[in-house]
Design a protein that fits this description.
3-stranded parallel beta sheet; alpha/beta; flat
Length: 97
C-alpha cells in the first residue's frame, strides 16, 4: 500500500507515520512537509529523525520524505513518478483546483 502524508513533520503527521510503520506491513509512506517556522523547526527535525529510526526498525516498510509544499505543482509532478497511481491522483486533484 502507498500512502502520502502531508504535514509529516507536524504532531499529527509524524505520529501517524510512526504508528503506520509500527502496525502495518508492506506499506510505503511518502511524507511531505515544507518545514516552515510556524513553530519550532528543531522539533520538526526531531520528529523526522524519530520517523527515520522507526523506519529502520521496520525494514518491511519504507519511508521517503519530500521537503516541499503541497501547492507546488512542479514538485508534486516530479514526486508523483515514484509514487505511481497515488501521485497521478494527487496531480489530477491539484489541477482541478
Amino acid at each position: 500500500m502507498h500512502i502520502l502524508i502531508t504535514g509529516a513533520a507536524g504532531f499529527i503527521g509524524a505520529n501517524l507515520v510512526v504508528r503506520l510503520l509500527k502496525t502495518e506491513s508492506d506499506i510505503h509512506i511518502w511524507g511531505l512537509d515544507n518545514i516552515n517556522d510556524y513553530y519550532d523547526v528543531k522539533l520538526k527535525e526531531f520528529r523526522l529523525r524519530e520517523i527515520e529510526k522507526t523506519s529502520n526498525e521496520h525494514p518491511e516498510n519504507s519511508w521517503n520524505f519530500i521537503k516541499g509544499n503541497i501547492a507546488d505543482k512542479e514538485l508534486i509532478n516530479n514526486a508523483r513518478k515514484p509514487v505511481g497511481e497515488l501521485g497521478e491522483q494527487i496531480l489530477e486533484r491539484m489541477n482541478k483546483s
